[in-house]
Amino acid sequence: MGTNCFHMETIKQIPMLYAFVKVAQKSSFSKASEELGVSKSHLSKLVKDLELSLKQSLFVRTTRTIEFTEFGKFLFDSCCDSISDLERMAQQLGKISQIPKGQIRITVAGAYGEESVSPMISQLLARYPSISTEIVFSEKVLNLEKSKIDLAIRVSSKKPTDGHTYKIGERREHLCASESFLRQNGIPKSPSDLKKMNCLVGSNDVWSLKRKGRSYKVKVKGNFKSANGRSLTQAAISGLGVANLPEVYVKKYLEEKKLISILQDFTETPVPIWAVTPFKKEIPLIVRLAIEELTLQF
């Protein structure tokens, strides 16, 4: 019983000793309280309680300075290193708790997943080997909880409502064709010119364009139709027709001049890209890191 009481008394004295050491190191209650983020009166009470507990005075207080008593100097020399060790241990524990680890399961669709999400995850795993991941490619909107998804990447003009949502960027689309096609068929000057051209049709044969606040909707047609962005891209590069594709598919080919951007004044409204997570309160560190990395790409 006596031993337990001794241990409890020792535990109670630890914050008092910490306060005492900080005041001694700063030679000031005011400076120590500022560093610790506590009130001067609270710090003074801790030191006073320590003095009462030890039945010894620790400082000689004057209006401007504080000095050790003989016992105070002995106590400081005895416990200063131990307090410093405790601080270093606390710092190390804090660093360890911030090391990302665990598994993250991500769902994404299409080229954005292949060209942006997959490379980002590879870089993340290289930096943090304690992370493991699974990327689920799906054109369907998966139920986050039932599918055990930690992070969903969605492209939608409307903000998703089935989780905690962050806008991480925008998807821009380009009207483009090969130089050979434009040389043979001419360069369109207005959206209506597209009706006369062979257009490579994806999942939507009505293209929506905008210029200076005015919207244009053009129903297009052509001899090639596919719901796959890569096949549409290759068809455009081969000179088959005009394509309307997200930047992630065509950026490289526009830079290489294999495709030429047309009707640049008539642009589609960018579509938001959302990161959606089922975590509504505390988001796991690895999920936060993934969201931050994706946001930096824009």
List the helices and strands and how they pair.
Elements: H1 2-26, H2 29-36, H3 40-54, E1 59-61, E2 66-68, H4 70-97, E3 102-108, H5 110-127, E4 131-137, E5 151-155, E6 164-171, E7 173-177, H6 179-185, E8 200-201, E9 206-211, E10 214-219, E11 224-225, H7 229-237, E12 243-246, H8 247-255, E13 260-261, E14 271-277, H9 285-295
Parallel strand pairs: 3-4, 3-5, 8-11
Antiparallel strand pairs: 1-2, 5-14, 6-14, 7-12, 7-13, 9-10
Helix pairs in contact: 1-2, 1-3, 1-4, 2-3, 5-9
Can you describe this structure in just a few lines?
The chain is 44% helix and 22% strand. The protein has helices spanning 2-26, 29-36, 40-54, 70-97, 110-127, 179-185, 229-237, 247-255, 285-295; strands at residues 59-61, 66-68, 102-108, 131-137, 151-155, 164-171, 173-177, 200-201, 206-211, 214-219, 224-225, 243-246, 260-261, 271-277. α1 packs across α4 (70-97).
